[in-house]
Design brief:
By secondary structure, the chain is of the alpha+beta class. Helices cover 15% and strands 30% of the residues. The chain has one domain. Strand 2 and strand 3 form a beta hairpin. The protein is elongated and about 55 Å long. Keywords: Signal.
Length: 86
């Protein structure tokens, strides 16, 4: 195989790799649900992680937000649990 073919195949293989998380859409109960743009502001320092948990359709939802440089929230992680202990 020619070196250019190997390089093209390597680039195509790397193009399929995506380490960025998908954009999460806010659910009813999310801190940013129903907001357009960065409406919610906080005094927390940029980079601070903020936790939120709420009940959505019988499932406990745990969310993590990162405070952005403009002090708005960005939803970066969500996990769900069908049951939880009191």
């Amino acid at each position: 195989m020619r070196p250019t073919h190997v390089a093209i195949l390597a680039l195509l293989a790397l193009a399929g790799c995506n380490t960025a998380p998908p954009n999460l859409e806010p659910l009813p109960g999310s801190l940013t649900y129903g907001e357009t743009g960065p409406m919610r502001k906080t005094q927390a320092a940029p980079g601070t992680m903020i936790q939120n948990r709420f009940l959505h359709q019988g499932t406990m939802v745990y969310e993590t937000y990162e405070v952005q440089p403009d002090h708005s929230y960005k939803l970066v992680r969500r996990s769900v649990a069908d049951t939880w202990s009191n």
